[in-house]
Design brief:
Helix content: 25-40%
CATH superfamily of the largest domain: Putative sugar-binding, N-terminal domain
Structural class: alpha/beta
Shape: globular
Number of domains: 2
Radius of gyration: 22 Å
Strand order of the largest sheet: 9-10-5-11-4-1-3-2-16-17-18-15-12-14-13-19
Largest sheet: 16 strands, mixed
Number of helices: 17
Length: 453
């Protein structure tokens, strides 16, 4: 038995699949169909247990996204019908703040894979579900900056979103989830399948709630698939009965000499705070590339100067923070275009790097694609949602950290940098700087922000 995770962006694929790597399962994130097929062959031979495919469908038209994910499941797991498909289990990873085409994708998968068990809660990152509504650190999703930025005027409630796509839904409330005996919970879910329910929305406010759901679904004999974020995936990964073979030995992490590049494409307030702390603690140089330069791509007169400005510190072995700026013309829909242009500026210098920290799924995918890296093997995580990986073929001496833009604590980027440097924050005041187990000394004279050349 193996697992196929289908995600709509790269950082989501990684933060969902990392729980399986943490549990000792060889886990590969594939950036395309060919890489996923190779990973599937590895799964069949026992070298990998979990494949996380980034379909790169978040910015597609809904109908195109639906076709892409249905094709992925048919090609990699579901060609012989819903019951035969359970030889490889399906997990449709969705964004915990419901961004992207997840409804259209779930509706396309449901006839192929059975009941959609919808549980997007990720309590470790402050995302919970109550009465079929997502909350972000206690605030209804529809009232958050994240939702208003991209979905102003649209409902953020799960049931109407799914029913608008033609799916027959039901809800499993928190009391029923917690109070019903395990066998009764299994029967309750099976009864909904018998009654023609196509999408079951499940409340969850803690990891314990998700663990109850994970155990109950594994006891089902009916065809189904999971729809969730990294929260439910972690609880599934912790259950040894999910797989019918012993876990193969995971790949050992490696550290190499060289500079670390932190690449930030997300403009979320969370990322801004994380960048500020990274600069404060390390004294790292920051370059903020104006969007106009990226929109102009190869035709912008300052492109060569920016490419040189990025390359100079990296060639000298100096760590660097590079961000996409924001202007009055900024549109969230242009994220992929800006990320691709930024990756083109960085690509000539990637050979200097020992580590890459990429924030934002579009940014991470663009950078890896520009570098010719088609798949990653996950190693560990810095904190929930912040995954550490290296290229699957191990041909490049590069360790990669990916993080969704709105994920993580204020320390996430700094923690990723410390991890790549093999350091930790000081255990107590008075620790000597620059030593393992202590806070590194700032890079004197390098702390400044450059936004023009």
């Amino acid at each position: 038995m193996s697992m196929l995770i289908v995600a709509d962006d790269l950082s989501g694929a990684a933060d969902c699949a990392i729980g399986f790597a943490n549990a000792g399962r060889r886990t590969v994130v594939a950036l395309g169909a060919d890489e996923a097929v190779q990973a599937a062959n590895d799964a069949a031979s026992g070298r990998a247990a979990v494949i996380a495919l980034d379909t790169d469908s978040r910015r597609l038209a809904p109908a195109d996204a639906a076709r892409r994910v249905a094709h992925a499941w048919q090609a990699l797991g579901g060609t012989q019908g819903v019951r035969a498909a359970q030889r490889r289990r399906l997990y449709k990873k969705i964004d915990s703040t419901l961004r992207g085409n997840w409804v259209a994708e779930v509706a396309a998968l449901q006839p192929l894979a059975g009941l959609a068990i919808v549980a997007p809660a990720f309590p470790a990152t402050g995302r919970t579900v109550r009465d079929g509504r997502v909350y972000v650190r206690g605030v209804p999703l529809g009232e958050t900056e994240t939702w208003r930025l991209e979905h102003a005027g649209r409902t953020a409630d799960l049931q109407p979103m799914l029913e608008e796509a033609g799916l027959r839904t039901a809800q499993l409330g928190i009391e029923r989830l917690r109070d019903a005996p395990a066998d009764a919970l299994v029967r309750a879910i099976a009864a909904r399948i018998e009654n023609g329910v196509q999408a079951l929305i499940v409340d969850a406010q803690s990891e314990a709630d998700l663990n109850l759901l994970a155990r109950a679904t594994l006891a089902l004999n009916d065809a189904f698939f999971w729809v969730g974020s990294g929260g439910l995936a972690r609880e599934l990964a912790a259950l040894p009965e999910l797989f019918d073979t012993a876990a193969p030995s995971p790949l050992a992490p490696a550290r190499h000499d060289g500079p670390i590049l932190t690449l930030v494409g997300s403009l979320s307030a969370v990322s801004v705070e994380q960048c500020a702390l990274l600069r404060e603690r390390t004294g790292m140089t920051e370059l903020t590339v104006p969007p106009a330069v990226l929109r102009g791509a190869a035709n912008h007169p300052d492109r060569a100067a920016w490419r040189a400005a990025i390359g100079a510190p990296l060639a000298a072995g100096v760590d660097l923070l590079v961000r996409i700026g924001r202007d009055d013309a900024f549109d969230p829909a242009e994220g992929a275009q800006l990320s691709t242009a930024l990756a083109a500026l960085v690509e000539p210098h990637i050979g200097h790097l020992a580590g890459l920290i990429a924030t934002g799924g579009e940014t991470a995918r663009a950078m890896l694609s520009a570098a010719g890296i088609g798949s990653l093997e996950l190693l560990t995580e810095v904190e929930p949602g912040v995954a550490v990986a290296q290229p699957s073929d191990d041909a490049r001496r590069l360790t990669i950290v990916t993080k969704a833009g709105a994920f993580g604590s204020e320390h996430a980027l700094y923690g990723a940098w410390l991890h790549l440097r093999g350091m930790q924050e000081p255990a107590q005041p008075g620790s000597q700087p620059g030593q393992p187990g202590s806070q590194p000394a700032p890079q004197a004279g390098r702390a400044h922000e450059q936004t023009s050349l």
